[in-house]
Amino acid sequence: MEDVQFFIEVLVGGLLSGVMYSLVAIGFVLIYKTSGVLNFAQGALLLFAALTFVSLHERGVPFWASIGLTLVLLAILGTLIERVVLRPLVNQPPITLFLATLGLSYVIEGGAQLLWGTQVHGLDLGIDDVPFEVGGVLISSFDLFAAATAALMVALITLFFRYTRIGLAFRAVADDPFAALAVGLRLTRIWAIVWTASGVVALVAGLLWGARLGVQFSLSLVVLKALPVLVLGGFDSIAGAIIGGLLVGATEKLAEVYIGPFLGGGIESWFAYVVALAFLLVRPSGLFGQKLVERV
Amino acid sequence: MSSATTGALLPAGDLYPFEPAGVTRDPGRSRSGPAERGADVESAQPGAERDAVLAISGVSLRFGGVTALADIDLTVAPGEIRGVIGPNGAGKSSLLNIVSGLYRPSAGHVRIAGVDFTEVPTQRLAHLGVARTFQNLALFGGLTVLENVVMGLTSTIRSGPLGQVLGLPAARREDAANRAKAEAIVAFLHLSGVAHRPAGELSYGLQKRVELARALVARPRLLLLDEPMAGMTATEKQELAAFVREARDTYGTTIVLIEHDIGVVMGLCDRVAVLDYGRKIADGTPHDIAADPLVIDAYLGVAHDADETLEIEEAV
Amino acid sequence: MSISVTPSIERSLPRAAIGGLTVAAILFIAFVVLPSVGSDYLFEAILTPFLALALAGVGLNLLTGYAGQVSLGSAAFMAVGAFAAYNFNLRVPELPFLVSIVLAGLTAAGIGLIFGLPSLRLRGFYLAVSTLAAQFFVQWALTKFGWFSNDNPSGIINAPPLKIASVTFDTAVGRYLFSLGIVTVLTFLAWRLTRAQTGRNFIAVRDNQTAARVIGVPVLRTKLLAFAVSSFIIGVAGVLWAFAYLRTVEPAGFNLDRSFQILFIIIIGGLASIRGAFLGAGFIVVFPLLLSRLGGELLGGIVDSGVVEMSQRIVIGALIILFLIAEPKGLAELGRRAARRLGGRPT
After folding, report:
1. Using one digit for the tens of pLDDT, what is the confidence trace for C279-315?
2. Helix (H, G, I), strand (E, B), or coil: what is residue A134?
3. Which of A242, B220, C40, C185 could form a disulfide with B131 if both were Cys (CB 3.0 to 4.6 A apart)?
4. Which helix (DSSP H) or strand (DSSP E) does residue C67 occupy?
């Protein structure tokens, strides 16, 4: 009985931390759906957002004003990226764009730290991380808060894309950029907006992760946690990002607890990748990814 | 809008969103019935099919609920230039993709050089003596024209990577021989002037010709040409048609030609099959085809193809 | 348009002769001139790391530039090479050192083959992400299992002396020459490969996989071969990096940043170009030195090293983007164009 309880506790902990992965992965999906780019700079964007917020807040700017200012900066950054990086590379093979975002991540990481310094900032969102008990299973209240935030984000994103004009345009572009272009949607503006939107997602994810790990350079490495999630869920599916995140979170924690001791521990650095790979061999386009029929 | 430009704008797949009801099949054509499928094919083949370089029998192709091809029969006799025509979305390219093993047919089988396949193994295609060109350019842009053509001989290569790197005599002889063969074809198709240019830099028409050279260099028994003249100017089309005919006459290659430009097909092909909505509605000499009411209906039924019907009449 | 049957003017012969002379001149300078005039600093801080990184670039370029399979795990194969050579040398002392290096390359090739298996089903981003598995798994395994580092608590290994027959290369110049010899041989073989049918197969798979398959290119075997050959070369580059340059190395030295560095080398230098790997490596090695010296001279001592490091990150990142936009073929193409202009022959 205790074993079962412990198992459930590990599982729930894993699922909740998986939500944190999902949150990062959603930012990727937004950009991938509209421009077909796997945006490696998402982690750097997350670092930039969290670092900007913390630094403003530490300098005495009130909480919401800091959020607002950070959002403005993210919008400027999104527009800049579209103008300087994406637009000149339009019609290039996707892998070129991916490499460009790799360069971009270096620029943003360097820029963020040049601007705000390299020291570690603590971040207190005012949520106590006291575990509470549900039916004998300990649950972290912070994790629960993170999960609730993620759920709210997903709901907002869904509403946004279903009911706003920009959302409709976004979906049109995601379906068929050429057709969207042909009917007069302005691709460049939509891209700028989507990059801003994924910046917002990055801010939320950055705050939650920052509260966990401290706001510092290593924050941008959460991108490495999100990649297997994306591989598992498919790069173009928000539902996939969520379920992939939960799967990765759960299997990772379970493996760490139950398999880890046999391998000497520390397997979380690669375990998610192996799970994702094993899965891919069965379904090459992920859980929910669109299967592309090759045309000749 | 002319049909040629429509063809260029639409994606390569030949899919129609629905299957039309009440399309009648051409009753007069001989075909092996579906009942024969899976039975002893060898004995059931009529004489013409046994000698055929390519025999497609009862081939259907469905993507989900969409039927791209329905129960197609087609035989290609040695040394003939066989045309396959039809409006956009008729299933012409799908048919070639089945013959080259890129699509797996939902039913039916394909017989190449006497061997029966339910799914043609693409990897062995070249060994079976089949080469093809693609509707969209499919050259290796990073290689020169000559290197692209040499690649057409890949299936004949015997030397391994180590022998090539170390420059063993056998590997060197093989490479030199292949280069000579490629140079001959390059000269045959009047491409010598651009032989050392990267293929990706050439004009569209020239790239199409390089694809033809790459397909021809291995002296295939069967050559599948998927809209080789799409997007070409009238002069380029005439030139390429002359090359195709010359290839047949010089090398004895059997050719299946899918083409949108009916005028070219009628002038070039010995026999022509007409596809419409994934079904074969006619099959015969260009003369028969031009007079076939079903064919005229099919072409007149599609507004933008009206001018092509006129071309049929002019060509015959 | 029509092309008449004019016999092509055979320009490739003189061009090949010029190329051969250039290479001979470079080799002469590298093997004879530099060792007699260079300083220890030049060999230890610039030339030896340059050679190791250039060789890794050559290896990655075969895989990514020629065969079109993007890998983000190069450093893992460098690590495999370094630790394998260390262990062969340690555990089978009677093996000649060069044999240990070849065996280390083969070990890296084997591991590369395993991590190349996903390429049979995956393409593009999915494959790129899957190569990260190699990166993290190898680093973890080398740190976790003490056996690999002969039970050093931090996983650190120390370089054995570099020996060929009875000659020991234990000076700065010696280690440079040792690296130079290995790099020259492997680069020559890699160059031969790119010019042969196998190299054309790589490019065919990269440019149009479907057409390649139809023609009869064994696509799966070609991809695996690309992974194996590339990993072999990168593995040997890892040996040079660890034994000739750093002399003492830990698994963390082969982290993701190192993988990206190799990738940046071939982007900046030029994809699908052997020369590009050398130009890119030269740039990556020399550029930070220049930048920090420049920063030091312009701003005196006011800037701390953190600022310099961040500025380097920004500039490298920006250069990647710039090259992708303005000159996707990299320094190699810029060099070619400059040479053509100097040659004055219009083309």
Report:
1. 999 999 998 888 878 877 776 666 666 788 888 889 9
2. strand
3. B220
4. none
